[in-house]
Amino acid sequence: MLSQYAIAAPVEDLDAALAMPVASDLVGAEQAERFAWVENVAGVRNIWIGGPDETARPVTTFRSDDGFAIYDLKLSPDGKRLAFVRGGDGEFADGAIPNPGNAAQLPQQQVMILSLAGGSPRVIGQGQSPVFAPDGKIAFIRRNVIWLWQQGQRAREIAQVRGSIGNLRFSPDGKQLLFVNNRGDHAYTALYEIGSPRVRYISPGLSFAADPTFSPDGTKVAFIKYREPPARGDDGTPSYWSIEVADAATGDARTVWRAPAGKGGRYAGTRQQNLFWTADNRLLFPWERNGWLHVYEIAADGTGDAVELTSGEFEVETFMLDPDGQSLLFVGNVAEPDRHRLWRVARGKAPERVTETLGIESYPAIAGRAVALIATDEDSPAYVGLATGSNYALRPDLSLRGAVVPKSVTFRADDGATVYAQLYEGRGAGPRPALVYLHGGPRRQMLTGFHPSSYYSKAYALNQHFAAQGYTVLSVNYRSGTGYGLAFRDAPGIARDGASEYRDVIAAGRWLADRKGEIDPSRIGVWGGSWGGYLTALALARDSSLFAAGVDFHGVHTMLRDLPPSLSPAEQIEARQLQWDSSPFGALDTWESPVLIIHGDDDANVPFFQSPLLARELAARGVPFEELVFPDERHSFLRHSNWLASYRATADFLDRHVKQRTTPP
């Protein structure tokens, strides 16, 4: 076994449950069977390494809940060195550096390198996204500048561009760097030959480039090119994206495939790399041709038709080439809508499960010929498991004792649409209090176990805690989320175009209220974060008669946004009114139920002003509310202590205003 410790926490002990280790950021070495990942234990983040023949062990010794994120892990091809970033915000790596610990001196975003034979990490520069060259050099990004470091020398600036830089990678010979240069309303594929006086742009246009990749021999470059649909929408038939291949020496490019009109005419990718070039010169990419996100392949020279490699009524979350070079690995919810598994499929054959024992499976990584993944299940938060050989965990025996097994349930909204949810049955006899939980995103999906995302892993732990305290919890995967196909994700009238996803929220509340004898209809609450905070506020504003109270984490409260100038004046007036009607602010006069508002004031996802604005309006109307603010904290809190404080406050608030409520509405 590769584990060195085992941990268990009782579901009733919220502090212990939230302190359980959570693994993330799994990467593998190209030529060695060694993996590296981050473990977060009660806010203390450290890097671990391990592999099929290597006992898992930590290689850093950070000791405090300081709010310093660790991300952008990269192993050298031989697995002997590790580069990573400490500090900053991985989601907004080019932005201002967060300071959730309220340090008197602002933190830095440090690129570090560590010899895995021993020693301590050392800083090689300020920035993010380090990548190894075949000869051991490291390139990294700081704002709009590419830097290059090599052993024995200080990092030096080698290229600067307008806009931001992403998807940085070396050519197979290490002489060129390929990247995306994003300029806000368009993005280019760019090539830079190290030492050259200029950057070359490949097929620049009035569109966005994404996921550029070299051919195995480095002589060509492939990339996805797409544009956004017009603001007024369309009838769903136009084609908005294509795949181009360019000569790396001349930059000459041509379109080798274009999405036909119809389903899949808009580009939609997975959460990781979306374009692969195989050894036999095929390009693999995601496409929603049949209304579900699947993997297709085309010949890199553009001959022949696109061939579907995965098929069925499920969605591919991530995919990559198998180490054998002949098969595809993908994560998808095949036959289990609320559960993700790792699958392998060879051309022309049916998919096969790669593992049998690792529960919910996400974010696979390859090291040499070994495959590992992030695994979770009903009582275990994210850990690293081997998906080749004997399929065992690098950190087993991790359990939330007493957890209930969430059940997948479906019911109908008032417009006939199917609503998907997971039900956590509360302990004790009925009628019990109940809660509706609403995830954020909205492009997310909650599962029947711990979520691989740290943010939603914590929410799952809190929902389990609520169930142990006697609440029945219904976690709703409302329309506009992922996992249930294109028609579900792009449902009519969602968000600022009418908030049709709220139909699923109110249906969930009514579904609970209709469970006579099990649920007390006067004690139903609601909570959620981000887009879930928005829907929580909308529920309280529109239906305080059903929802007794709610907790709103960093939610959106007014949906008013600047409108594109492509809309006519009449269209702008209509769209503006629809935005208002889709907002909690559009129904403030019927808001009566108490709410707890929680927000970090350095939120880069949902502007902090949304919460003070709501508090001001509630105060003016005499609506009871409580508030909890974390100075200098981000959207997904970087400090464990702030998660603890917010979840303790959430449990206390809902106990007082839902569980202990005695007066019927």
UniProtKB/TrEMBL annotation:
Single GO molecular function: serine-type endopeptidase activity
A Pfam family the protein falls into: DPPIV_N
Positions of transmembrane segments: none
Biological process (GO), any one: proteolysis
Protein name stated in the entry: Prolyl oligopeptidase family serine peptidase
Superkingdom classification of source: Bacteria
Peptidase S9 prolyl oligopeptidase catalytic domain residues: 464-660
Keyword Coiled coil (UniProt): no
InterPro entries linked: 6-blade_b-propeller_TolB-like, AB_hydrolase_fold, Peptidase_S9_cat, Peptidase_S9B_N, WD40
Keywords noted in UniProt: Hydrolase, Protease, Serine protease
Domain spans labelled Dipeptidylpeptidase IV N-terminal: 262-361
